[in-house]
Design a protein that fits this description.
Layout lengths: L1 E8 L3 H12 L4 E4 L11 E2 L7 E2 L14 H6 L4 E4 L4 E3 L6 H19 L20 H10 L10 H5 L6 E4 L3 H7 L6 E2 L4 E6 L4 E5 L2 E10 L3 H5 L4 E3 L4 H9 E3 L2 E8 L10 E4 L5 E2 L2 E2 L3 E4 L6 E7 H9 L2 H16 L2 H5 E6 L13 E3 L7 H4 L7 E3 L12 H18 L1 H4 L1
Parallel strand pairs: 1-2, 1-11, 2-8, 6-15, 9-12, 11-22
Antiparallel strand pairs: 3-4, 5-7, 9-10, 10-11, 13-21, 14-19, 14-20, 15-18, 16-17, 18-19
Helix pairs in contact: 1-13, 3-4
């Protein structure tokens, strides 16, 4: 039995932020991470392709308020703007034909939302009226960032997001996040099985034994919480359970393909779309390509929602073949000869994640506030799902970790000193 002031559960961005904050305040703190690495859904792999490959988060959203921009620059990492004008559409001489459709959908959505009550909501499906030969591609683009099918996207949740220019990190976004964990008291491969609130402390049961703390910060994903990977005593309240039914995990995937240098005739970090012709249950069966990522020769096929799940269930090899076939159709069969290898992610099957990032079902956006509430006085929650304005982002998760650590210091001073 080991006693701590604070135990942080999870070493993703929120857990790292909370642990850093509390260590700086000279508290006796430990962070327990279930997997064998830090970073959570922000992870840069360099072994699969020999170049940085962000298996999860890659886009550093909202440059002007991104909480990781400053730390990344302080580390000397190469952060550069993801220029939204660097986009091409295969088969269209005038890209505005597609992007005008996408812009029109969002304008219609904003107008529709302004026309209903403040407590009412609409789904993307209610306003997503696009047709013509590029209609399915436009539908895909309108939904991809939320990584959900249109009938599962809350417009309230979508438009609570604070927009702005995005950044890329040449060394990998996951690399940046992992660097922030350096020298922190983090124990890997230490999954927490149960968190029990006692009269004067919290007891945690892990595979490696028992720990106690004055308070606990849980940064597990809503997917993990909803599926009871961690048991709570007392059990989670009914309103939090309801919130977990309303704020669920999305499905965003990267199918990465490595080519010989110069194979795809596009500059680095170009967004490539193409004409999608297949549809299933009103969902476009396709995605988009981020080409020559960081100048590495790596191209990511980005997919979301039920199409992504279908692709991933078919297996990595099938997903790679599908993405390669599309590129061959655009650039010609020579790509096959210059193709080196591919790999596809599947976050839904990661046991300590269970999906990509959070999203509200229509009518559920306000329940993010419920997820942020403490439980049984001594258990606190933080992560991208509890942030309002930068939800579903690494920056939002990092800010929430800082917020909850500061809240513990301010309002629970008597419990941890």
């Amino acid at each position: 039995m080991t006693d701590y002031d604070v135990v942080v559960v999870g070493a993703g961005a929120a857990g790292i932020a909370a642990t850093r904050f509390l260590v700086d305040e000279n508290l006796n703190v430990i962070c327990l991470e279930a997997s064998g690495r830090v970073g959570g859904r922000a992870h840069t792999d360099t072994e699969i392709f020999g170049v940085p490959f962000d298996t999860g988060a890659h886009w550093m959203h909202c440059e002007h308020i991104n909480s990781l921009r400053g730390p990344g620059l302080a580390m000397g990492l190469n952060l550069y703007e993801a220029d939204e004008d660097r986009a091409v559409t295969a088969g269209l001489e005038d890209d505005d034909i597609l992007w005008d459709q996408v812009d029109a959908v969002f304008e219609d959505a904003k107008y529709a939302l302004s026309s209903i009550g403040e407590n009412d909501d609409l789904s993307m499906d209610d306003v997503l009226k696009v047709d013509g030969p590029w209609g399915l591609t436009a539908r895909m683009m309108c939904c991809l960032s939320m990584a959900r099918d249109p009938n599962q996207i809350s417009l309230r949740d979508l438009f609570s997001w604070e927009g702005g220019k995005d950044l890329f990190c040449k060394e990998g976004f996951g690399h940046l996040v992992a660097r922030l964990a350096d020298q922190l008291p983090i124990k890997l491969s230490a999954p927490v099985k149960e968190i029990q609130v006692l009269p004067k402390e919290v007891r945690l049961t892990t595979d490696n034994g028992l720990l106690t703390a004055k308070v606990v910060i849980v940064t597990a994903s809503v997917g993990v919480l909803a599926e009871d990977v961690i048991r709570f005593d007392p059990p989670l309240e009914a309103d939090r359970r309801s919130a977990l039914d309303a704020i669920t995990m999305s499905d965003y995937g990267h199918t990465a393909l490595l080519f010989q240098p110069g194979t795809i005739p596009l500059e680095s970090d170009i967004w490539l779309t193409y004409q999608i012709n297949e549809v299933a249950d009103a969902v476009p069966q396709g995605g988009g390509f981020l080409c020559n990522v960081g100048g590495t020769g790596l191209t990511n096929f980005e997919t979301g929602g039920s199409f992504n799940r279908t692709l991933q269930e078919a297996g990595s090899e099938a997903a790679v073949d599908h993405a390669l076939e599309i590129l061959v159709g655009i650039f010609g069969s020579e790509l096959r000869r210059k193709f080196i290898k591919g790999h596809s992610t599947n976050w839904r099957h990661e046991p300590y994640v269970r999906g990509s990032y959070s999203g509200a079902l229509p009518g559920g956006s306000a329940k993010r506030e419920v997820l942020a509430r403490p439980h049984a006085d001594r258990i606190y929650f933080a992560g991208e799902a509890t942030h309002r304005g930068q939800q579903a982002s690494v920056s939002g998760a990092y800010l929430e970790g800082q917020r909850i650590a500061n809240e513990i210091l301010k309002f629970r001073h008597r419990n941890i000193r």
